[in-house]
Fold this protein.
Amino acid sequence: MEGLKVLRSTQIIILGICFVVATIISTIIFTKGFMQVKKFSSEVIDVTGSAEKKILSDYIVWNAEFSCRNPQMTTAFAKLKQDLTKVKQYLFAKGIKENEIIVSQVDTKVLYKKTEEGYNTNEIEGYFVSQDVQVLSYDVGKVTEVSRQSTELINQDIQFISEKPDYFYTKLSELKIEMLAKATQNAKERAISMADSTGNKIGLMRSAKMGIFQITPVNSYEVSWYGNNDTSSYKKKVTAVVSVKFSIAE
């Protein structure tokens, strides 16, 4: 009976030792695995890549206005109608096509006589009528030249006011894809250079975040946190920026 008690005690001690050893081993395995995961998640290199490209606008929008004033409304409208005919004839002669022209409705303002203090009275002095004409075209060079010459219409007794054209690039979606690829490649080259300087190598790309596109005049370095979209210049510069994280390879 005494021998049986000793045997049981020995078995309990052995089981206890096995449990302790198993616990230590599993803790070591878990800790090593945790350290590897932590190492995998923390050893990264964060770089910013950029790309630039100069482009030429391929679409133009030009706005202009002509107007007249007269004591008689019917006379003012008749004069404006004549002016519209002259304006369209002028544009056609310069090579502008009819489907490139949009003519707005007539805007009419009643002009009242003023007191010596500058206040309006109820007495009508005349009428001011105006009309907008807009040219939209892919022939950027031609319309630009016409916009500069259009003051010639003043010589035809037309009160013509030309605004500065707006210039656009219609293939921006395709360009963004191209620019993002170049900016990402630039980020990779920077990461490789930084890693090489410390004797390391980069691994897989962990994440990438696209920055704001900047479309500015060629010689401009203006940057905005919400992005620029210049329409004032024919020649433009597009800048793309990306933020990329790469793992550090063993």
Remarks:
- Helices lie at 2-42, 73-93, 140-149, 172-196.
- Confidence is low (pLDDT under 50) at residues 1-8, 10-41.
